[in-house]
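User: Need the bound-state model for adenosine-5'-diphosphate:
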Amino acid sequence: MIEVSGLVKVYGTNVALDNISFTAGEREIVGFLGPNGAGKSTCMNIMTGYLSSNAGTVKIGGVDISEKPDEAKKLIGFLPEQPPVYGDMTVIEYLDFVYELKGCKYNRKKHLDEVCKVTRISDVKKRLIKNLSKGYRQRVGIAQALVGNPKVLIFDEPTVGLDPKQIIEVRNLIRTLGREHTVILSTHILSEVQSVADRIIIINEGKLLADEKTENINRTINESSRYMVKICGPQREVLEALKSVSGVTHAEVSSEREKDSYTYHVESESGYDMRKNLFFAMAEKQWPVIAIEEESVSLEDVFIRLTDSKSSDLKAKGGKR
Ligand code: ADP
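Assistant: Bound-state model below.
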């Protein structure tokens, strides 16, 4: 449904996209993951025809966006980072305006009622957009993308600025939309794509780092477990003892200190729970363990693990790709 090939975008001397290629199939939800400044918005703006590229092509349903922009754009519903909603219009006036703008040829009332129903904004249809909560306003933004029933939906950071309840609602909505549409959503939050996307594309500094099924990324993340451990005892000796606990692959001291206890970050072998060994090893020395907490894996950790596993794959293959 979407074919992106060799995209390059340069702003002055800054290479925002460096040869990005990927595809997305019908009814697939693809998560575009990367830290701020990675190039996600630039890529999405090119894919939706709002920005031109220096090199490369984007095809939507086989139609090249730079050759036939009007035809390709009809297949896309776009929610930019700043939703293009007009505060002084009511929700229904605004959707009516978008309907005109897109030159839709459905039964207008039926189509807009359906769009409002799916995005669950029917109860605020007659309210001014500026008086809506951020969560509702975001759903109006998603509704305008759905007008015309495009096959492809592209959402740039759709949950930024929402509260936890609104985030769950928008994620559920995206999952529902993925049953009928190809959805690409960008985010800088790992758990966000893990919870909705079938596939995750990771970009950093304009380069594509990974393009994997979500389950494969999860496996990479789960390969080792990281714990935050608080132990009362002499820092240096505790650290040495931690390193020799069976199953521990790495241990380091954190800067945190609380009375006579220090905090440590401890990593364990894949699939091995070393917590009991750690507890007994410290008990033997009479150093009380006052906390063990599993640490969530950050986006940076994923980058490091993916790049590490790529370079070890390369080494295993004798440096050949
Ligand atoms: P993301 O959406 O992942 O946060 P962006 O696509 O917004 O990343 O930005 C990628 C890079 O391109 C950044 O280094 C950013 O500063 C730069 N950039 C984005 N838009 C412009 C612009 N209009 N002019 C110059 N540089 C830009």
